[in-house]
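Figure 3 (text version): structure tokens given as input.
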């Protein structure tokens, strides 16, 4: 099978291109596989991706799965294509029926569930304890000349997680990892997903309706894909159903939130604080109102970034491809 792999040049110094290509060469051990690699250092448009892939390519790994790429024109241009894989957990909504019509299996690469869940809690813990704020204070304050030092009293409110209710929207692999962490902190874990999850691993999670989750949660963490149904699901109406002083965490996609509605809720105090690894515009090339909210902690879409998880993504993608060839595909997002 002829396979085209799109490899993005690493943007951080802890991983080299050689690190990535060395791991991708393990794909060549898959029987009857002819591998071709394309290395790029900037975002590729759907048209550019289509042009990179040869007409006789049967599998492509490393594309961003979006509706502008997965089109009838694309499949007609690549008539032998049978497999497409993104290298991320996330993907855009696309025409599933179209992929069925052309017999193409589409998978994501769920390589960093624990990594992203950990980052969600890094945001939450920063909101609750402001460790860096206090560290800077201790290191820079003039303790020698301060005759009445404000010490051991704190510069911010301290929030204990034990006993609070942690609400998860989207109980997939990342959401499940977040649930385990919350449970470890002694939080009551509830969740809402489109489908009820069954199995012993979910026994400690109370699965509820979305309205019930909104009304009961002290912390709400978003772990659901961005689709037509979930776009701006956090908005003025759903926020009004939340507890006063709720904390909102988003490590999924910025489009899940109607951003101005969140800004209004942050400014009014309805939402105590938000921890956001994703926002409406990345990078923010306009003066977004959310950037001026002191009670919004914002990072630059880096939840996926640890070296271990990025290297793991290659191994998981290759394993997924093997499973497809063996006739039992996994991580399929167009079932």
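Below: residues designed for each position.
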């Amino acid at each position: 099978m002829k396979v085209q792999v799109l490899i993005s040049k690493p943007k951080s110094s802890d991983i080299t291109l050689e690190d990535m290509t060395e791991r991708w060469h393990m794909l060549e051990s898959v029987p009857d596989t002819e591998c071709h690699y394309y290395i790029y250092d900037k975002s590729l448009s759907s048209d550019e991706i289509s042009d990179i892939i040869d007409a006789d390519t049967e599998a492509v790994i490393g594309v961003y799965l979006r509706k502008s790429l997965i089109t009838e024109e694309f499949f007609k241009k690549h008539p032998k294509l049978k497999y497409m894989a993104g290298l991320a957990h996330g993907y855009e909504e696309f025409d599933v029926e179209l992929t069925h019509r052309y017999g193409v299996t589409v998978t994501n690469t769920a390589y960093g569930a624990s990594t992203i869940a950990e980052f969600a809690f890094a945001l939450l813990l920063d909101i609750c304890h402001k460790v860096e704020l206090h560290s800077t204070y201790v290191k820079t304050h003039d303790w020698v000349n301060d005759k009445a030092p404000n010490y051991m009293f704190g510069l911010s409110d301290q929030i204990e997680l034990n006993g609070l209710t942690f609400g998860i929207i989207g109980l997939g692999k990342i959401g499940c990892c977040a649930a385990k962490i919350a449970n470890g902190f002694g939080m009551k874990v509830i969740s809402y997903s489109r489908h009820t999850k069954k199995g012993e691993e979910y026994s400690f999670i109370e699965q509820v309706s979305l309205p019930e989750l909104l009304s009961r949660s002290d912390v709400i963490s978003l772990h659901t894909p961005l689709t037509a149904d979930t776009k701006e699901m956090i908005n003025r109406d759903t926020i009004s159903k939340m507890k006063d002083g709720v904390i909102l965490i988003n490590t999924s996609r910025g489009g899940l939130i109607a951003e101005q509605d969140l800004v209004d809720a942050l400014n009014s105090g309805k939402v105590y604080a938000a921890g956001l690894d994703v926002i409406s515009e990345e990078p923010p090339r306009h003066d977004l109102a959310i950037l001026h909210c002191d009670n919004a902690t914002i990072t630059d879409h880096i939840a996926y970034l640890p070296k271990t998880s990025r290297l793991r993504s290659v191994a998981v993608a290759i394993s997924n491809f093997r499973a497809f060839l063996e006739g039992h595909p996994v991580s399929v997002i167009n079932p």
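The domain at 2-112+307-325 is CATH 3.40.50.720 (Rossmann fold).
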